[in-house]
Design brief:
With 477 residues, the chain is of the alpha/beta class. 39% of the residues lie in helices and 19% in strands. The strands form four sheets. Strands 1, 2, 3, 4, 5, 16, 17, 18 and 19 form a nine-stranded mixed beta sheet that branches. The protein has a four-stranded parallel beta sheet with strand order 6-7-8-10, sandwiched between helices. A hairpin with a 2-residue loop joins strand 17 (411-416) and strand 18. The longest helix is centred in the C-terminal third of the chain and has 25 residues, at 449-473. It is globular and about 75 Å long.
């Protein structure tokens, strides 16, 4: 974004300043001053009188391919859920990938989220075309995005521990890890330096990748100085499977191969132990808390209070809409602030402000971007909120009101990189044919529901037995 812009006299809500009315001066998409500013004569202005100006929220973990699966997946443990959602669904072409990424981007922008880390499934066949489609959608929508193409070369059943049970035959064809590493290398090279877009390395999960693939991807992250994002220890079954495969903690394995750095973010981490968290903190990596999907799939609760006490970097994700059912970060923050009140002393409960800071500061760290602040030097990702629903008494009171009582209906204007993408509660970037494309794709998805159920019926009994076995074997210490 080139040029100057001033947001006049809004109540500036920032994690590191007292709530106060101020101007915000933006030059070439960067905040250069907050206070009583005097820009160049004729500089465009946005009237912020009577509004709250806050940093845009950050969704640090989602899957764009699920954006139209809102509300249609049954409540199931993750391994069974994957049979229904992932392996029972329809294949997507690049046009579908564009439509899905656009759907999520528009929903996030309208609800005050200006940046997203999309761990998007990308097929080995057609990798380049799908990545181009998603990158184009995010550019057209105007949202800031870190795109971590989610790839794997081990079949889903290879990633599980079946014990006395026979493993089912593979669901897919073998994939050459060298081809995947080459595709990721091309992607990181081609998209380096793109505006509002960060190419990231995205192995699906360690247990779903061969050692060759994971070591290759870790090497690419170092070579390209690219952030790395993956799932880690979301469920008890993953604890059992990874311990069986590596003979040690999977977090220790990631550290040993150089995949654990201050530019690494790990989604979920529900079943990491104290040694894992210490290793994570020593590396400066970030845990992405996904409270809604963890509840939806019964995966468990991240030991958040302990992480916050240790000063660990924690971000928040909505996760894919097949397990989170929307991309509303206000809702994700509310769940994160509430679900941890069922155990431990009440003084250890995460406060709304702590959760809000996780969304902003942790999200900024996961995307390796200077966002999440309204302060000089930060990129101008700013949300203006109407104040009818909220009492602007002080910062803490306002944050409580936003975390507990806001759903996005107060979002009036949204700027990303200093460019206005939502104005007067209305998106300015939605393609004219988007709704028609979205509805057509939704119909195709709905038509696949019987085949999803058939996939669950076929593999559900075996996976349920594994789930029950592992639930009995693994518990938080």
């Amino acid at each position: 974004m080139n040029g100057e812009l001033v947001v006049r006299q809004a109540s500036v809500l920032d994690p590191d300043r007292t709530l106060a009315v101020a101007d915000i001066h933006i030059v070439d998409g960067v905040i250069v001053a907050v206070g009583d500013v005097r820009p160049t004569l004729g500089t465009p202005e946005i009237d912020g009188h009577g509004m709250i100006a806050m940093p845009g929220l950050v969704n640090a973990h989602t899957h764009s391919g699920q954006h139209l699966d809102r509300g249609i997946a049954p409540n199931l443990p993750l391994d069974l859920w994957m049979m229904w959602v992932v392996y029972g669904g329809i294949p997507f072409n690049p046009d579908d990938s564009y439509t899905l990424a656009m759907s999520g981007a528009l929903e996030m922008l309208r609800t005050g989220c200006t940046a997203v880390l999309d761990h998007a499934w990308v097929p080995a066949d057609g990798f380049d075309d799908h990545v181009e489609a998603m990158a184009s959608a995010y550019a057209d929508a105007g949202i800031r995005c870190g795109l971590a193409p989610m790839i794997q070369d081990r079949d889903i059943f290879e990633s599980m521990a079946f014990g006395d049970h026979d493993a089912p035959p593979p669901l897919g064809d073998p994939v050459d890890p060298t081809l995947l590493v080459d595709a990721m290398d091309r992607y990181l090279t081609e998209y380096a330096g793109c505006a509002r877009f960060t190419p990231m390395v995205g192995p699906s999960a360690p247990q779903r990748c061969s050692d060759d693939l994971l070591v290759g991807l870790s090497g690419l992250a170092h070579t390209h100085d690219a952030p790395l994002h993956t799932h880690v220890l979301e469920t008890r079954s993953q604890v059992v499977a990874t311990r069986e495969r590596y003979g040690r903690s999977v977090v220790e394995y990631l550290d040993d191969i150089g995949a654990l750095t201050d530019r690494t973010s790990l989604a979920h981490g529900v079943w990491m132990d104290g040694d894992d968290f210490a290793r994570l903190q020593a590396a400066g990596a970030t845990v992405v808390h996904n409270p809604i999907s963890n509840l939806r799939c019964g995966s468990g609760l991240l030991p958040l209070a302990g992480l916050l006490d240790q000063g660990a970097s924690v971000a928040i994700g909505a996760d894919g809409a097949a397990s989170g059912d929307n991309q509303n970060m206000f809702e994700a923050m509310k769940f994160a602030a509430l679900i941890h009140t069922t155990s431990g002393p009440f003084r250890a409960w995460p406060t709304p402000e702590a959760v809000w800071r996780m969304c902003l500061n942790g999200g900024a760290k996961a995307l390796c971007a200077p966002i999440g602040r309204i302060a000089p030097g930060n990129w101008a990702d700013i949300v203006l909120l109407d104040t009818e629903r909220h009492a602007c008494l002080d910062r803490d009171a306002l944050v409580r009101s936003l975390v507990f009582a806001e759903h996005g209906e107060s979002v009036h204007t949204v700027l990303v990189d200093g460019a206005v993408v939502v104005e007067g509660h209305t998106s300015l970037t939605a393609p004219p044919d988007h709704r028609a494309q979205e509805r057509a794709l939704q119909l195709r998805i709905n038509e696949s529901l019987p085949q999803r159920q058939a996939m669950l019926d076929r593999y559900g009994p075996l996976l349920e037995a594994i789930h029950e076995r592992d639930a009995a074997l693994v518990s938080h210490g």
